[in-house]
Each structure stands twice: as structure tokens, then as C-alpha cells.
Specification:
Elements (H helix, E strand, L loop, with lengths): L14 E3 L3 H19 L5 E6 L6 E4 L5 E3 L1 H6 L7 E6 L2 H11 L8 E5 L2 H12 L6 E7 L8 H7 L5 E7 L1 H11 L7 H6 L3 H9 L3 H18 L16 E3 L5 E8 L3 H11 L11
Parallel strand pairs: 1-3, 2-5, 2-7, 5-6, 7-8
Antiparallel strand pairs: 3-4, 8-10, 9-10
Length: 283
Amino acid sequence: MQNYLKPEDDLLTTRSAGEWAAIKLDYLVRYINVFETAMRGKWSIRNYIDLMAGPGKNRIRETDAVLLGSPLLALTTKYAFTGYFFADLSDENTTALDKRCSASPFYDRVHIHPGDCNEIVREIVVQLKRDDRNSLNLAFLDPEGFELEWQTIAQLATIRRIDLIINYPQGGLNRQMALSFQSNEETIVDRFFGDTEWRKIFAKHHGKENFVHRQLMDHYKQKLQRLGYPDVRRDDETGDEPLIRNSKNAPLYRLLFASKSKLGNDFWQKITRRDVSGQTRLF
């Protein structure tokens, strides 16, 4: 039990991940640190939401190293949140996550929901809205595939103050859009974007990978605007959307950020100006 909260093997189930997972998680931890350092004295209720939480630890395929996953990283940062809301479709994952969280002094703040995040989200939103006027919230939405549906984003956005860090699966979309854009039925890509507008964008710009994803991300952000999230951009255009690549330098995913607060956007811009090694990023 002593190593449940440490980046080492504890004999419980782990999530298989590539080395690049550490880069994504570094952005998350840095945002949490800025968020909690700045806001803990201003908001008495601060919640962290992780709807595809996994078992709490990742095992890196290339090295067999064990890393803390997003829920345990959020649970072990310098300043704790006052509430943690975790969900995962796998009972094995939620059981392992619960055991690991039980080693934390903040275990009484942890709420673990087994089930499909797109269904569980309604239950979590109801809980969060009990203190909606007095709370500040951060949601990390990191699916392994296309589990995340737009309606889940829309549900979370009904909360008054909630920042969103969203995995935009660029590599997966490259493969899936080619299979889905002419389908007569609703597809997982339709559910991810919440409409079929992406099909027009893909058909018009197919073959221009960087440009088509710029258009698709802009479409996604426009939909976020309609949910109350202002579109904040920098001159470098994609600077706020770190691109994570695999060991062969192929694009995997970007991290999209949304906040209803100027301060939240300032925080994100601050941390995304530097990469995991602390160097200024080149876009």
C-alpha cells in the first residue's frame, strides 16, 4: 500500500502507454500547479474531473517504466483539490484506482464512478452543481480512442466555472475520417464533433493534413464559443494546442484548452510556451 501513490509497480493493473504520454501529463501537471497555486486562496471549492481516468498508473511500452496517471498526479500535487471526480468504463480500472486513492490522505474527497463517461457525466454534473456558485473546476478529458462525445462537453459546460483540457485525437481522426465521411449512418466521428459539419471540411481539404486539422479545430472551438468559452488565440495560431508526436514523429494528438475566464487562458498560454524540458516551444 505504501507505493500505491508512487511511480512504481504495485502489482495492480496499469494502462499501457507510449513514452509520449509523459509529455501530455507534464502539461496537465504544470497547469494544475499554476491553477491551484493561484486559486486555492480565492475559491474554497475546487474540483478536478477526469472522465477517462484509467487505473491511475501507466506502464510505458518501450521501457516498462511505471508512471502515475492523470488521476493520481492530480491527487498528489503540492496543493490538493477539494473534490475529485473520476470515471472509467472498466471495472478493473476503477477497482485499481480506488485502491490506489485509498492511500491518499484526501481519499474522503474522491468520488469514483464506474461506467461510460458519456452517461456518467450527467450524474457528476448534478453533484458539481450543488455548489456551482462557489466552485472552480478543472476537467481533463483524455480518451484512448473516440470515447469522448460532444454531448459530454456540452454537459460539462453547463457548470458555471469549468476549465477543459481536451485530447484532440489528430492521428486517430486521420484514419477514422477517411472511413466515416461518406457513411449514411451516424459515426463515432459525428459523435466526437457533435455534428456532420466535419465531413464538409474533410471533403474540401482532404490531403492537406495540417490545414484540415486547423479547420477542424477551429470548428470545434467555434462550438465551444457557443457554450460560453471565448476563442483566445496567439499569433502563432497553434501555440495553445501542443502537438504530441510518437517515436516516429507522427502526429498523435493535440491538447485543446477552454476556459470561460481570461485568467485561465493566461495560465494555459503561460505553460504551453515551454515544452516538457523547459525549452521555448517551436510550432
